[in-house]
Design a protein that fits this description.
Radius of gyration: 21 Å
Number of helices: 3
Length: 149
């Protein structure tokens, strides 16, 4: 076999191996496990999966949600005080809240961020609460570290 044909055969073999479904990489995953504690009433689990469209989030909460209005909540990934990914709008669209619970939900947030960008950061739930007549503030009601699943 001539040298160009050997090179072509080797390239085709590499192409076949790299496009094989059996060798396809599994999507990167992570999770955040919220545990109820003092001043942090949220109890539940979030799962994160990297997709071609962004980050897919699945989860449910057993406790901690006092308001039935999804618009009263934020769901964020924070690095200290800096927002890494804001899942709020997509969460608000799908959240079915029957206080104190949030039923199982799934959504995908379009983002260029990857699972590695959110691992070891904090998943945070905030709620808009009344502190006085007509005065509302965002209060953190849950925080959990995002870890490899």
């Amino acid at each position: 076999m001539s040298k160009p044909l050997r090179i072509l055969a080797a390239l085709l073999a590499c192409l076949a191996l790299t496009t094989s479904p059996a060798l396809a990489a599994t999507p990167a995953k992570a999770s955040a496990d919220f545990a109820e504690k003092l001043f942090s009433p949220v109890d539940g689990v979030l799962g994160f999966e990297e997709t071609a469209d962004g980050i897919k989030v699945t989860g449910a909460f057993e406790k901690g949600f006092a308001s039935a209005k999804p618009a009263d909540y934020q769901l964020l990934i924070l690095d200290g005080a800096e927002t890494v990914v804001d899942f709020t709008k997509d969460f608000q669209k799908v959240a079915e809240i029957a206080p104190p619970k949030v039923d199982q939900f799934t959504f995908t947030t379009a983002t260029k961020k990857k699972i590695n960008d959110i691992r070891n950061e904090d998943a945070v739930v905030r709620q808009l609460v009344d502190v006085a007549a007509g005065i509302k503030v965002l209060a953190e009601i849950g925080r959990a570290r995002v870890q490899k699943a």
